[in-house]
Amino acid sequence: MEVPCVRVAREEGEATRRELADADLIDDEYEIAVAEGDLYVPVTDPDAVPAGLDVVSRPVDERETQTTPADLLGFDPSYERLGEAALLDEDDDERAREIADAVLESDLPVDTVLNKASKVKGETRVRDWDLLAGDDTEVVHREYGCEFALDLAAVYFSPRLATERHRVTEQTAPDERVLDMFAGVGPFVIPFAKRGADCVGVDVNPDAIEYLRENARRNGVADHVTAICDDVRDVTSEYNGWADRIVMNLPHSANEFVEAAVAIAGDNCVIHYYDIQHEDDPFGPGERAIREAAEPAYEVTVETQRVVRSYAPHELNVCLDVRLER
């Protein structure tokens, strides 16, 4: 069967395999192949492979020794992987426990299984979990060479946005000043800082800010990260005109913070504005909100309009990359 693979010279194979593993991109259902001095590493998402790596399609063998939860259950269960945890979204407690048992019995490198017990709620966007296996709700997640410790019961984190975060991070220059208005545990801030940017992360959740500081130390970028526990609107005066780049990843509510973002923007600043809107006009409300707040003091250019994912029937999670030039 032909699958997408990263082709790399054998002498560079181990470093590349580690890079892909850190990004959680290796497709464990297939064997790594060797041919004519090259390694072929199967990947789950060819579009998320870091720039500079060669992606090709070629036949590879399926792994015969990997026992999956589907093998044990007789059906393909739905779950997300986050570090060594499996995250379920099952309404039926008995079915959830059946899946949890199969996940633990399989060959997946998982020791914790959690089932969602509530929707995301409150100002800090956390949810309740049922702990079906494991000691607690704290995990360590690896993404594109960065490592994030977090407690799922205390902070918000979505592994589904890894590719989008990488897309934004790749745009950042080493000498930039970047402010994340809703930083969480640092999934944007930490990779920005690893590229040499001077970063400020703001969040109202004190647990998230503590994890942001820990993750900055864990990734060796503490000197490049300032973590602030506050409503970002209350720190705009301190960072007035400071930022070259701003991340506004608070869908549903980002429009309430546009004036603060414009105040923080420097003379030439890119805003990554995330929104959730109806599919009939997914980008218009965000663009109008930014133009209303920024013009005529700034020239406003929408550089990218991107659908990140489907959020609900007829609703899209989108991003606008908007440049403000004074």
TrEMBL record:
InterPro entries: MeTrfase_TRM5/TYW2 (IPR030382), SAM-dependent_MTases_sf (IPR029063), TRM5-TYW2-like_MTfase (IPR056743), TRM5/TYW2-like_N (IPR056744), Trm5a/b_N (IPR040601)
Residue ranges of coiled coil: none
Claim: Cytoplasm is one of the keywords in the record: yes
Listed CDD domains: AdoMet_MTases (cd02440)
Presence of keyword Cell division: no
Domain SAM-dependent methyltransferase TRM5/TYW2-type: 79-326
A GO molecular-function descriptor: tRNA methyltransferase activity
UniProt keyword annotations, A-Z: Cytoplasm, Methyltransferase, S-adenosyl-L-methionine, Transferase, tRNA processing
Any GO BP: tRNA N1-guanine methylation
Record GO cellular component, one term: cytoplasm
The organism's place on the tree of life at top rank: Archaea
PROSITE patterns associated with the record: SAM_MT_TRM5_TYW2
Pfam families noted in UniProt: TRM5-TYW2_MTfase (PF02475), Trm5_N (PF18093), TYW2_N_2 (PF25133)
PANTHER family (alphabetical): TRNA (GUANINE(37)-N1)-METHYLTRANSFERASE (PTHR23245:SF36), TRNA METHYLTRANSFERASE (PTHR23245)
The protein, known as: SAM-dependent methyltransferase TRM5/TYW2-type domain-containing protein
